[in-house]
Amino acid sequence: MRTVANIIKSERIQLGRTTVKQALPTVRVEQVSPFLLLHHFGPFQVEPGEEAFDVAPHPHRGFEPVTFLYSGGLRHKDSRNNEGILKSGDVQWMTAGRGIIHSERASPEFLENGGTIEGIQLWINLPQAKKMVEPGYQDIKVEQIPQWTEDESRVKIRLVAGDYNGLKGPAQTFTPILALQIELNREGKTFVEIPESFNAMAYILRGEVTLNENFSYKSETLLHFRNDGGGFSLKSNEPSHILVLAGEPINEPLAQWGPYVMNTQTEILEAMRDYQMGKMGFYID
Description:
Elements: E1 4-9, E2 11-15, E3 18-24, E4 35-46, E5 54-60, E6 63-71, E7 73-78, E8 83-87, E9 91-95, E10 100-106, H1 108-113, E11 115-125, E12 136-140, E13 147-150, E14 155-161, E15 163-164, E16 167-168, E17 177-184, E18 189-193, E19 199-211, E20 216-218, E21 221-225, E22 231-247, E23 255-257, E24 260-262, H2 265-276
Antiparallel strand pairs: 1-21, 2-3, 3-4, 4-11, 5-10, 6-9, 6-11, 7-8, 7-10, 9-12, 13-14, 14-17, 15-16, 17-22, 18-22, 19-20, 19-21, 19-22, 23-24
InterPro entries: Pirin, Pirin_C_dom, Pirin_N_dom, RmlC-like_jellyroll, RmlC_Cupin_sf
Organism: Haliscomenobacter hydrossis (strain ATCC 27775 / DSM 1100 / LMG 10767 / O)
Protein name: Pirin domain protein
């Protein structure tokens, strides 16, 4: 069994008008390579016609911003003329690469009808050789994501990225990554296998789980594992939702400033200049 290196309770931070729970980075843990950032937004209850989740146009370079939408509706638009609507269960996997400008807002349908919105935004680093690739956009619908049940249907697992249980997730990645969405009913149990070379972490969105038949952990907690075993077991003490993320670490220098993730400070300055010069495209709403 893998043991826990760090137990991270997410902290609330303000992003514009939206409050999010930040589990990564922290003062103690700057990254769990290749994962750089994990924000949990919601659950927010929105009344019909009420203003909701709205992240204005902003640039990115050198990494992949990924959104797992658990409930609600989001509208994505970017400077590469990509536009898409995410609904409950959908995943948006965007490659910023050499540079892109995008916005994420509650979808018109969701704003009209109201409801609950909740999701995870994840930043995944790109290796140096791929940081300047052409930007890309994967609009992954819930119907495309393989899922199965275990433990007499008390466990439901969805495979977003990577190879697992003889299946392959729909997300195309630049480095080996495993992304599993796990839903446990009361007393549901599962063992999560992790490749030996992968870094791994598990974020508990809601509920309470017992890890490795030992300690229990509650919602809004990130468990960062040591690389000392073939996986870990989870057992729910109450209905729980967990996002498991694992990947081959990128052992390269890291330079980061705001929305840019590169290898040197010179490259960060170049990203800032290129954005100002319009080399990341132009966002038209």
